Task: structure prediction
Amino acid sequence: MRSAAFILLACLLFIDVEGMVLPRGRCQCMDTGVESIKPKLIEKVEVLYPSSSCKNLEIIVTLKGEGEQRCLNPSSHFAQNFVKKMQKQKRSRE
Result:
């Protein structure tokens, strides 16, 4: 009877651990990133703000076609202007 209770408790713990959201680990961009990319090649933009696991602001773009991901240099003029433009478009849709 005790072993059945132990197994049930162990199962409940595993279920709870699986549902937990873990932090994203380490930085996704290993270098400073590229200065610019042609906007017509960009399919998706993801901005990752600094966190306890990565102290850097990261801008990751997914390119059309093969879905290749590239990091943009967050301090480049292109990246700053592009993110501002995307935020304006997002606000206008809401």
